[in-house]
Amino acid sequence: MAAMISPRHYRRYPWIHEGMVDELKKHGIVLHLHICGDTTKITEDFIATGTQVLEIDHKTDAERLKEATRGRTCLLGNIDTNLLALGKPEEVDAACRELIESCQAGGGLILGAGCALPPRGAPDGSPAAGGRPRRQRCRPGGRGGSRPTRIALRRSR
């Protein structure tokens, strides 16, 4: 969406979710919002929706957006789906580690794809067919969750 309309248009049209977000939260529903493309120009608008999870595309600077959220929401993403589908396993691991290192302080990151993945993974002949994450395990890093969470990626063989 951020790649399809200008920030001026994004702000001009009232969102149907205004008022709906609080009502859904009252019922314990965790809300996710995904906007395709680079959301840099609408960062504050994106955060102001009030959703608990902002699903971010790989084109968005995750570290900058996480700093802008200041604990108001959680980020999900933003590993490039092309890399996940076609990259070498070690490239995927490196991208995951880089994202975790840059965004782990204070928590609030769910490691995931920057957009929807195709129903089938990498084609059998592609470099990424050598493995896929089998298990993700989160371990609190310290007392009261005050330290960053580490995510261990394991590959199936």
| Average pLDDT | 75
Order of helices and strands: HHEHEHEHHEEE
What's the architecture, going by CATH? Alpha-Beta Barrel
CATH level 1 name: Alpha Beta
Helix and strand composition category: alpha/beta
Q: Which spans of ≥5 residues are poorly predicted at pLDDT below 50?
A: 129-157
Beta fraction: 15-25%
Shape: globular
Q: How far apart are the first and last residues' alpha carbons, in Å?
A: 37 Å
**What is the count of DSSP helices, taking H or I runs of 4+ residues?**
6
How many β-strand runs?
A: 6
Can you walk me through this structure?
It is a single chain. By secondary structure, the protein is α/β, with parallel strands linked by helices. The protein has a single domain, classed as TIM Barrel, CATH 3.20.20.210. 31% of the residues lie in helices and 20% in strands.
Task: Summarize the helices and strands and which ones pair or pack.
Layout: H1 7-12, H2 20-26, E1 32-35, H3 43-48, E2 53-56, H4 62-69, E3 74-79, H5 81-86, H6 89-103, E4 109-113, E5 133-139, E6 150-155
Parallel strand pairs: 1-2, 2-3, 3-4
Antiparallel strand pairs: 5-6
